[in-house]
Amino acid sequence: MACRQLLDRRQFWRVIRDHKDGILLDSGMGRSAYLCPKEECFEEARKRKRLQKALRCQVPDAVLEALKQRLSSTKAESAEAN
Fold first, then answer.
1. What is the CATH code of the structural domain delimited by 9-75?
2. Could you report the per-residue pLDDT of 9-32, keeping only the tens digit for each?
3. Could you give the percent of the chain with pLDDT greater than 70?
């Protein structure tokens, strides 16, 4: 969404607006948005409210916090690999 890269969907995080359960991460049926797992892209999407615009609804702070936690754990894993 933020960087507008065209890659395989499996390389992105999927955020779904489900008609029953609200906003879900990674699995479910409904309107989807794909987010690049880079800090710059996450901050850009958060700052410009790209998730809200793509999903056409409010995204709870808990979902944004979960994505930020996931980003932190991804960075830690890549640092350990190096």
1. 3.30.1230.10
2. 888 999 999 988 899 999 889 999
3. 93
State the pLDDT at residue 2. Answer: 64
Could you tell me the strand order of the sheet in which 22-25 lies? 22-25, 13-18, 31-35
Amino acid, single-letter form, for residue 75: K
What is the maximum span of the chain, computed from C-alpha positions, in angstroms?
42
Domain limits, the chain: 9-75
The string over 9-29, giving b where at least 16 C-beta atoms fall within 10 Å of a residue's C-beta and e elsewhere, is eeebbebbbeeeebbbeeebe
